[in-house]
């Protein structure tokens, strides 16, 4: 019997063994879910620790750290690209998951849009014609002059409004280059299964067509030079081979912007010429 000085204290009922088992299972499930979420979040560090090669970003991209901070992964640039050159990063991109990039061997940027629609569509300035004053261009990234688009050569304004390159081409495998070997090329540049598209002025200025529908016939392979959309970005240079014969090799010039068309159309497998993403001019020449 309680007294005024002794409060009523109710003793909780004992917990049944079944209830204990349910609580334990719930705790284990919650802990497992938390561990899984932590593991997924840590995937973002994998590309950093693995020193993954940089991605080729779309034209007008800010420097990588600023680009990753500014891009909201809206996909507007993907939607407006006429050749579907822009993709979004997957889980193995870590911090870059959902961030736009270009895989030039699969589909290069050939500037079929003329005005670089991805830059116009970007709502945040992650892709831009002109950086803010507090974001100076990296040494070697700035173009010496506005690039002239071959497709606009006869227009009143033939240049692209690009201030910086987004990569630089490089003859990575000269031993595989057909021109260096003194060989020509006949047929489909990448074979009948290749899905890449490109604008051919003699076919249609505004409608890109599959590369496989435009076969070539060349006594000396020079596709990287003739199909480059930018004037004076790459040229054939003569040299004397070890056997004393006169050969030619592609030489990348300073007007290269890194679009990737040369890598895409190169008939060698793997490509003799490649794009070094986010490279600057001085790095390419040394």
UniProtKB/TrEMBL annotation:
Top-level lineage group: Bacteria
Ranges for domain 4Fe-4S ferredoxin-type: 60-91, 98-132, 248-278
One Pfam family hit: Fer4_7
Keywords tagged on the record: 4Fe-4S, Iron, Iron-sulfur, Membrane, Metal-binding, Transmembrane, Transmembrane helix
Membrane spanning residue stretches: 27-48
Molecular function in Gene Ontology: 4 iron, 4 sulfur cluster binding; metal ion binding
Cited InterPro entries: 4Fe4S_Fe-S-bd, 4Fe4S_Fe_S_CS, PSI_iron-sulfur_center, TAT_signal
Segments for region (Disordered): 1-22
Stored SUPFAM superfamilies: 4Fe-4S ferredoxins
PANTHER family from the UniProt entry: PHOTOSYSTEM I IRON-SULFUR CENTER (PTHR24960:SF79), PHOTOSYSTEM I IRON-SULFUR CENTER-RELATED (PTHR24960)
Protein name (database record): 4Fe-4S dicluster domain-containing protein
Species classification: Bacteria, Pseudomonadati, Pseudomonadota, Betaproteobacteria, Rhodocyclales
């Amino acid at each position: 019997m309680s007294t005024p000085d002794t409060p009523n204290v109710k003793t909780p009922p004992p917990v049944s063994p079944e209830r204990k088992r349910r609580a334990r299972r719930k705790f284990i499930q919650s802990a497992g879910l938390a561990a899984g979420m932590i593991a997924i979040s840590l995937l973002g560090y994998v590309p950093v620790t693995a020193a993954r090669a940089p991605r080729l970003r779309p034209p007008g991209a800010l420097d990588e750290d600023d680009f990753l901070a500014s891009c909201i992964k809206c996909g507007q640039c993907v939607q407006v690209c006429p050749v579907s050159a822009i993709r979004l990063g997957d889980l193995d991109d870590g911090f870059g998951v959902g961030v736009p990039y270009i895989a030039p061997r699969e589909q290069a940027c050939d500037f079929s849009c003329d005005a670089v629609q991805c830059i116009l569509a970007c709502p945040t300035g992650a892709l831009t014609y002109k950086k803010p004053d507090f974001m100076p261009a990296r040494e070697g990234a700035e173009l010496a002059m506005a690039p002239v688009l071959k497709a606009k050569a006869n227009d009143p304004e033939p240049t692209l409004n690009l201030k910086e390159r987004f990569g630089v081409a490089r003859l990575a495998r000269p031993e595989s280059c057909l021109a260096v070997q003194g060989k020509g090329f006949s047929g489909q540049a990448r074979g009948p299964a290749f899905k890449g598209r490109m604008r051919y002025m003699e076919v249609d200025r505004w409608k890109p067509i599959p590369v496989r529908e435009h076969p070539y016939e060349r006594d000396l392979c020079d596709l990287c030079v003739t199909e480059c959309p930018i004037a004076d970005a790459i040229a054939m240079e003569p040299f004397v081979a070890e056997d004393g014969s006169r050969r030619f090799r592609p030489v990348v010039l300073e007007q290269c912007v890194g679009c990737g068309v040369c890598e895409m159309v190169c008939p060698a497998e793997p490509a003799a010429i490649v794009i070094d993403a986010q490279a600057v001019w001085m790095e390419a020449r040394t």
